[in-house]
Write a structure and sequence with these properties.
The complex is a heterotrimer of chains A (443), B (293) and C (355).
Chain A lengths: L2 H19 L8 E8 L6 H20 L7 E8 L4 H11 L16 H14 L3 E2 L17 E2 L5 H15 L10 E7 L2 H4 L2 H11 L2 E7 L7 H10 L3 E5 L4 H12 L6 E3 L6 H4 L10 E4 L8 H9 L17 H24 L6 H9 L2 E2 L1 H7 L8 E2 L10 E7 L4 E3 L4 E2 L2 H19 L11
Parallel strand pairs in A: 1-2, 3-4, 5-6, 5-7, 7-8, 8-9
Antiparallel strand pairs in A: 9-12, 10-11, 12-13, 12-14
Helix pairs in contact in A: 2-12, 3-4, 8-9, 12-13
Chain B lengths: L1 H31 L6 H17 L4 H24 L7 H23 L14 E4 L2 E4 H23 L1 H11 L1 H6 L4 H27 L8 H12 L4 H26 L7 H12 L14
Antiparallel strand pairs in B: 1-2
Chain C lengths: L12 H5 L5 H21 L2 H27 L7 H18 L5 H20 L11 H17 L12 E2 L4 E2 L2 E2 L3 H24 L1 H11 L1 H6 L4 H28 L1 E2 L6 H14 L5 H23 L7 H22 L3 H15 L5
Antiparallel strand pairs in C: 1-4, 2-3
Helix pairs in contact in C: 3-7, 3-8, 3-10, 3-11, 3-12, 4-5, 4-6, 4-10, 5-10, 7-10, 8-10, 11-12, 12-14
Classes of the chains: A alpha/beta (443), B mainly alpha (293), C mainly alpha (355).
Chain lengths: 443, 293, 355
C-alpha cells in the first residue's frame, strides 16, 4: 500500500472525528439521557436487557407526548462494562446532545459509578445507581449527586436475613442457624461481609463466608465445603457466569436448591436458564417482579415493540427481570424529571435541576397506579438525607420457566444500618474535605 | 478421610475437564510449534455455534456435523490467512498472532450468534452417585470417559494412520519432513481441524457445565498451567497435568483456604506449575530444547 | 528539502552520539514539547484531557515499561497489569500512612516497590525460557490481584475495596483540574521517556538486546544473564508501577484491584506489538492507536444513519477488526507502526529529489 495515501486517509478520519465532536449547538425542546450501555462482553445479558427496557420506556413516553411536551432523546456509548471506557463515554456525552442538556447518567456498573462519582459531583450531573452502587452514598448530605435508588447493598442483605427469619417463623429463630454466604471474589462480592457479621452478632446466627474466585466457572471446592458444613441457608452473591455454575455445583453435591437465595445480581433469567433443571426451585430477591401484565408494560408493548421499534434484539426477553429493571429505572428518571419541571418550568432542565427532582422523588401507591406501575415499583420517597428511598424487596422462585413471586415486600432493617452508613459517609467526607450539607436547611 | 477422598476424586475429575482444553493446545503445538492462545475462543465459537443451531431446530447430530464442518472451515482459513504468511517467524510472533485470532473469533462468534446466555443440556443426568458415602458427579464421570475416548482416538490417529505418521514426522523435524515430500500446509490444516474438533467436544462439555456464554473463552486460563506441568508437546502430559492441577487446587482451596483465605484457586495452579518448572524447565513430559550458538 | 541533512557534520564524539543527531529533529521535538506544555492546555477541553490525552500518555508509559522487558530484553510477560496495580496501591498506601509524604516521592517509591515485586517474579526467568516463562508472569497477575482483594489493609478497609486518589498537590500547587492532571502526567512522561531512551542506548540496553537475540550466545560473550534479566524485570516493573499510579490517580481518580486484570496486561502487550517491539517511539504510536481506534470507530458509526448498526454489533465488529489488524501488522509490518514512521522519514529525507 502506498503510505502517503494511507496517511491521507488517517487525516481524513481525524477530521471527521473532529467534526463529530464539535456538533452544532441548537436549542431544542429535548431532554437528553447519556447512556453508557454495554451490549457485548461477559455482562452483555444484563446490559441489553436493562438498556433495552430503559430506551423502550423513553420511546413510550415520547409516543405519549413526552414529559409535559419535552421530548426525551438519548445516545448510546458502548462501555463493555470496562471502567475506562465508561469514563470516556461519560466525558464524551456529559455535555448533552445537539443542545439538549443531559439529565442524569445511569451506568449500571459499580466500577463505572465509582470512577464517575467525583466527576458527577463536579459536573453537577446526577449519577443514578439503581439497586447497586456505593452504600454510603445513601447519605445525600455528603453525596448530593449520587442516588442508589430503591436498594443499596446493605439493605439487600438485611432484607434477605429478615426473610430467612420470617420463613422459619420469626427473626428470633435465627439464633443458632447456620448461614453460608458464597460471594464473588471482587470488591462487589465482599462489600456486604462486614454488615453480615454485624447482623450475625445481632441475631445470633452462625455465618460462614466462602469466596469464589473471578470469574467463578469452577466452584467444586466451595460446594464441597458447604456440603461438609450443612448450612440451613446459602446466600448467593454472584455475578455473571458464577450464578449458573453455583446452581449446577449445588446439584452436584446434593444441596437443596430451594435453600439458596440469590441476591440482586443473581436474580435474572440469564442467571438461571444456563443451569437448566438444576435451577428449579432457586429463590432470589427482586425489587420488581418480572412479567408483562402491568399496564405500563402493556402500553410499551403497544406503542413500541408492536410498531417495530422495540430495542430488544430478542423479543422474547420482553418482561424479563433486566428489561423490567430498565423500565423501572426509566419510570424513576422520568418521574424525577416531572417533579423538577413542576418547580423549574416545563422545559429541558440542567443536571442540577434534575437532581432536585430526584431528591424530592415521592411515589405513593396512587401515583404508581396512575403510571400503571403498581406492584412493579415499590413506593419510594427520597429526601436530602435519604437517597435510597425504598429498601424493600420481594422474593421470587424459579419454576423452570419463569419467576414466581413467593413473598410480599420484605423491608430491610434500615434503622440498624443507618448509623453504619452515616459513619462511612462521614469518613469519606473527612478524607475528601467535604462539608456535609445541612439537610434541615434544604428545601 | 472420606471427605478428603471426595475432594480428591472431585478434583481429579475436574482436572480432566481442564485436560480437554489443553489437548487442543498440544495438538497444535506439536505439529506447528504455535502456542495457540485462541483455543479458548475456538471452544466458545464451537459451543455457541452448536447451541444456536440446536435452538434453531436442528437435531443433535445435525448441529454437531454442521459445527464440525464450520470448525474445519475455520481451520482452513486460519492456515491460509494466518499461518502461511507467518511461516518461519519467531514463535513469539506466532503467539501474538493467535492473540489477535482469539479476538477475531470471539467477536465473530458474538456477532453471528449474539451475546445471549444459552443453556445446554446433553441429556446426561447430573444427580450425584453415592459410593461409600462419597458423592461423585455422574456428569464428570461421563466427561472423563469422553476424554479417555478422545485420547484413544487421537493416539490411534497418530500411531496407526498415514497422516499420523506425517504428523509425527513434522513434529520431529519440519525441515526433514518437507524434504521427504510431506506437505506442511496440509498437515497444519489437519491439525487445526483436529484441534477444532477437540475444541468442539470441550465446548459441549464445558457448555453443559457453565452454560454457553462468553466466559467459556476464559477456560483457557485454567488450561495453561496444565500445559506447563505436562509439557507443551505431550498429550499424555496434558492428561497428567490436568489431574495434578485439578486435585491440587481443590485440596488447596479446602485445606489451605481456611488458613490463608479462600478464593485461591486462581493462582494456586500457576504457583504449582512454577514449582514444577523450577525442577523440570520443560514440564514433566516436554522435550528439552538443546541450544546451539 | 526541508529534511536535509547535508552539511550537518559532527565535530565532536558527543555530537555524533546524541539521540537526535539532526537539527530538524531537535527543533521538531522542541516545538512539540512547547506545544504539549503550552499549546495543548490552552486549546484542549475536558473531554480531550480526561478521555483521550491522559490515558494515551499513561498507556504509552506502560508500553515503554513492557517494551523494555519484552521488546529489548526479550522476556515475554503477561503480568504488566499486576505491576501497575502494585505501583498504584503502594503509592496510595504511602500517601495514606506516611504523613507529609510528597506526592511525587510516593509515585517513585510505588515504582520501586513494583520493581522489587517484578524482580521476584523475574527470578524464574533464569531457569525457564520462552512460553514457559509466561506462567511466572501470569502467577504474578493472579497472586497480586488476590492479595490486594484478600487483605483489606491495602485498600484502607474500604468496604468496596476501591481506593480513591489522594489530593494531587505538589509543592503547594493543586493539579487536580483536568489541565493539571494532564500536565502532571506529561511532566512525568517526558522525564521517564528521556531516561528510557538513554537507558536503551546504554551498555545495559545493549546487553538486553544481546540477551533477547539469543541468551546462550550472550552468555558466551560474557554478558551476565542474571544481572541483565533481573534488571530488565526490575526497571520494567518500575515504569509499570509509575504508570499504574498515574492510571489510578491522574486518570481515573479511583481504582479497584480488578481494574488491573489480565485484559489490561493484554492491552499493554498489544500496544507494543502494534507500536513496535524494541522501539521507544513505538509506544506512543501503539498507545495512540489503542486509545483512538475505538473512539474513532464509534464516532464514525455515529455519522451513519440510526439503526444501520447497533452499538453491540459495532463492538463485535471492532473486536474482529482489531484482531485482524494485529494479524495484519504481524504479517506485513512485524516491527510495528514505529517502522512505518521510520520509512516515512527516509522518504522525507530524499524528498523531492529521489535518487
Amino acid at each position: 500500500m502506498n503510505h502517503r495515501t494511507s496517511l491521507r486517509r488517517v487525516a481524513l478520519a481525524l477530521a471527521l472525528l473532529g467534526s463529530g465532536l464539535a456538533s452544532a449547538v441548537q436549542a431544542a425542546n429535548e431532554q437528553y439521557f447519556p447512556l453508557q450501555s454495554y451490549r457485548v462482553g461477559p455482562y452483555a445479558a444484563g446490559g441489553t436487557g436493562f438498556f433495552g427496557g430503559f430506551i423502550d420506556y423513553m420511546q413510550y413516553v415520547n409516543a405519549n407526548g413526552g414529559v409535559n411536551g419535552v421530548k426525551l432523546t438519548w445516545s448510546e456509548c458502548e462501555t463493555e462494562y470496562v471502567v475506562e471506557k465508561g469514563v470516556e463515554c461519560y466525558e464524551r456525552l456529559k455535555g448533552g446532545l445537539n443542545g439538549a442538556p443531559a439529565a442524569a447518567t445511569n451506568p449500571l456498573s459499580v466500577g463505572i459509578a465509582y470512577a464517575t462519582l467525583e466527576r458527577s459531583t463536579a459536573d453537577k450531573l446526577p449519577l443514578i445507581t439503581i439497586n447497586h452502587g456505593r452504600t454510603d452514598s445513601t447519605d445525600g448530605s455528603v453525596f448530593p449527586y449520587v442516588f442508589p435508588l430503591q436498594l443499596n447493598p446493605y439493605s439487600e442483605v438485611s432484607a434477605i436475613v429478615n426473610y430467612i427469619g420470617q420463613r422459619d417463623g420469626g427473626i428470633a429463630t435465627l439464633k443458632g442457624k447456620k448461614i453460608a454466604v458464597l460471594y464473588h471474589g471482587s470488591p462487589y462480592g465482599k462489600e456486604t461481609n462486614s454488615v453480615l457479621e454485624t447482623l450475625a452478632k445481632n441475631y445470633g446466627f452462625e455465618l460462614t463466608t466462602l469466596e469464589v474466585p473471578h470469574p467463578g466457572n469452577e466452584q467444586q471446592s466451595q460446594w464441597l465445603n458447604i456440603r461438609r458444613l450443612k448450612p440451613d441457608w446459602v446466600i448467593l452473591r454472584g455475578w455473571g457466569v458464577m450464578n449458573p455454575v453455583a446452581l449446577k455445583s449445588a446439584q452436584k453435591v446434593g444441596y437443596p436448591v430451594d435453600h439458596i437465595i440469590g441476591n440482586i445480581w443473581s436474580n435474572s433469567e440469564e442467571d438461571v436458564i444456563p443451569a437448566g433443571a438444576a435451577a428449579k426451585g432457586f429463590i432470589s430477591i427482586t425489587t420488581h417482579p418480572s412479567g408483562t401484565d402491568f399496564p405500563v408494560l402493556k402500553g410499551i408493548q403497544k406503542d413500541v415493540p408492536d410498531k417495530g421499534q422495540g430495542n430488544l434484539a430478542d423479543a422474547k426477553r420482553f418482561g424479563t427481570v433486566y428489561y423490567n429493571l430498565g423500565v423501572v429505572n426509566g419510570i424513576l428518571n422520568v418521574e424525577a424529571l416531572r417533579i423538577a419541571q413542576a418547580k423549574f418550568g416545563e422545559k429541558p432542565l440542567t443536571g442540577e435541576q434534575v437532581r432536585w427532582g430526584f431528591e424530592h422523588l415521592d411515589l405513593d401507591d396512587a401515583r404508581l397506579q396512575a403510571l400503571g406501575a403498581k406492584g412493579l415499583v415499590q413506593p419510594l420517597k427520597l429526601s436530602c438525607a435519604d437517597h435510597e428511598g425504598g429498601g424493600a424487596v420481594r422474593f421470587q422462585q424459579w419454576d423452570g420457566q419463569r419467576w414466581n413471586l413467593i413473598s410480599d415486600w420484605v423491608q430491610a432493617d434500615r434503622g440498624l444500618l443507618r448509623p453504619i452508613i452515616e459513619a462511612s459517609a462521614a469518613q469519606y467526607a473527612k478524607e475528601k474535605g467535604i462539608t456535609p450539607r445541612d439537610c434541615s436547611k434544604e428545601q | 478421610m472420606e471427605f478428603f477422598f471426595e475432594v480428591l476424586i472431585g478434583g481429579l475429575l475436574a482436572g480432566v475437564m481442564y485436560s480437554l482444553v489443553a489437548i487442543g493446545f498440544v495438538l497444535i503445538y506439536k505439529a506447528s510449534g504455535v502456542f495457540n492462545f485462541a483455543q479458548g475462543a475456538m471452544v466458545l465459537f464451537a459451543a455457541l455455534t452448536f447451541v444456536s443451531l440446536l435452538e434453531r431446530g436442528l437435531p443433535f447430530w445435525g448441529a454437531f456435523l454442521v459445527t464440525l464442518t464450520s470448525m474445519v472451515v475455520l481451520a482452513l482459513l486460519i492456515e491460509r490467512a494466518v499461518l502461511r504468511p507467518l511461516v518461519n517467524r519467531p514463535p513469539i510472533i506466532l503467539f501474538m498472532a493467535t492473540l489477535g485470532l482469539s479476538y477475531m473469533i470471539e467477536g465473530l462468534a458474538q456477532a453471528l450468534w449474539g451475546a445471549q446466555v444459552h443453556g445446554l443440556e446433553l441429556g446426561i443426568p447430573d444427580e450425584p452417585l453415592e459410593i461409600h458415602g462419597m458423592l461423585i458427579s455422574q456428569f464428570d464421570l461421563f466427561a472423563a470417559g469422553t476424554a479417555a475416548l478422545l485420547v484413544i482416538v487421537l493416539s490411534f490417529l497418530f500411531n496407526r494412520t498415514r497422516i499420523g505418521l506425517s504428523l509425527r514426522a513434522v513434529a520431529d523435524d519440519p525441515l526433514a519432513s518437507l524434504a521427504v515430500g510431506i506437505r506442511l500446509p496440509r498437515i497444519w490444516a489437519v491439525v487445526w481441524a483436529a484441534a477444532g474438533f477437540v475444541g468442539l467436544v470441550a465446548g459441549l462439555l464445558w457448555g453443559a457445565r457453565l452454560g454457553v456464554q462468553f466466559s467459556l473463552s476464559l477456560v483457557v486460563l485454567k488450561a495453561l498451567p496444565v500445559l506447563i506441568i505436562g509439557g507443551f508437546s505431550s498429550i499424555g502430559g496434558a492428561i497428567v497435568g490436568g489431574l495434578i492441577i485439578g486435585a491440587a487446587e481443590k485440596i488447596a482451596e479446602i485445606y489451605l483456604g481456611p488458613i490463608i483465605g479462600s478464593g485461591i484457586e486462581n493462582w494456586v495452579p500457576y504457583v504449582l506449575a512454577l514449582v514444577f518448572l523450577l525442577v523440570r524447565p520443560a514440564g514433566l513430559f516436554g522435550e528439552r530444547a538443546i541450544e546451539r550458538v | 528539502m526541508l529534511y536535509q541533512e547535508a552539511g550537518q557534520l559532527a565535530r565532536r564524539y558527543a555530537a555524533e552520539r546524541r539521540i537526535f543527531r539532526l537539527r530538524q529533529d531537535r527543533i521538531g521535538l522542541l516545538l512539540l514539547l512547547v506545544f504539549a506544555f503550552v499549546g495543548v492546555p490552552w486549546l484542549g477541553n475536558d473531554y480531550w484531557f480526561s478521555a483521550i490525552l491522559i490515558p494515551f500518555m499513561v498507556l504509552s508509559l506502560a508500553g515503554l515499561g513492557l517494551n523494555l522487558l519484552t521488546g529489548f530484553a526479550g522476556q515475554l510477560s503477561l503480568g504488566s497489569a499486576a505491576f501497575m496495580a502494585v505501583g498504584a496501591f503502594a503509592a496510595y498506601n504511602l500517601q495514606l500512612r506516611v504523613a507529609g509524604m510528597p506526592l511525587l516521592l510516593s509515585f517513585a517509591l510505588g515504582g520501586v516497590i513494583a520493581g522489587l515485586v517484578a524482580l521476584v517474579f523475574g527470578l524464574p526467568s533464569l531457569r525457564i525460557k520462552g512460553f514457559y516463562l509466561l506462567v511466572s508472569t501470569l502467577a504474578a497477575q493472579f497472586v497480586v490481584e488476590w492479595v490486594l482483594t484478600r487483605f483489606s489493609w491495602f485498600t484502607n478497609d474500604n468496604a468496596s475495596g476501591v481506593i480513591t486518589s489522594p489530593p494531587l498537590i505538589i509543592a503547594g500547587v493543586d493539579f487536580s483540574s483536568p489541565q493539571g492532571r494532564y500536565l502532571l502526567t506529561l511532566g512525568l512522561l517526558v522525564l521517564l521517556f528521556w531516561l528510557g531512551k538513554n537507558l536503551v542506548r546504554s551498555e545495559l540496553g545493549r546487553n538486553w538486546m544481546a540477551v533477547r537475540d539469543m541468551d546462550t550466545a550472550a552468555a558466551v560473550i560474557g554478558i551476565r544473564l542474571l544481572k541483565a534479566k533481573l534488571l530488565a524485570f526490575a526497571i520494567s516493573g518500575f515504569y509499570l508501577g509509575i504508570a499504574g499510579s498515574l492510571w489510578a490517580f491522574a486518570y481515573l481518580g479511583t481504582v479497584e484491584p480488578h481494574g488491573f486484570d489480565l485484559s489490561r496486561s493484554f492491552q499493554v502487550l498489544f500496544i507494543i506489538i502494534i507500536g513496535g517491539l524494541g522501539s521507544v517511539l513505538g509506544n506512543f504510536l501503539g498507545a495512540a492507536f489503542i486509545v483512538l481506534f475505538p473512539i474513532l470507530l464509534g464516532n464514525l458509526s455515529a455519522l451513519l444513519p440510526v439503526g444501520v448498526i447497533d452499538s453491540g454489533q459495532l463492538e463485535n465488529l471492532q473486536k474482529v477488526l482489531f484482531g485482524a489488524l494485529i494479524i495484519v501488522f504481524l504479517i506485513k509490518e512485524p516491527e510495528g507502526l514505529a517502522r512505518l514512521w521510520q520509512r516515512f522519514r527516509l522518504r522525507l529525507r530524499v524528498w523531492p529529489l529521489r535518487y
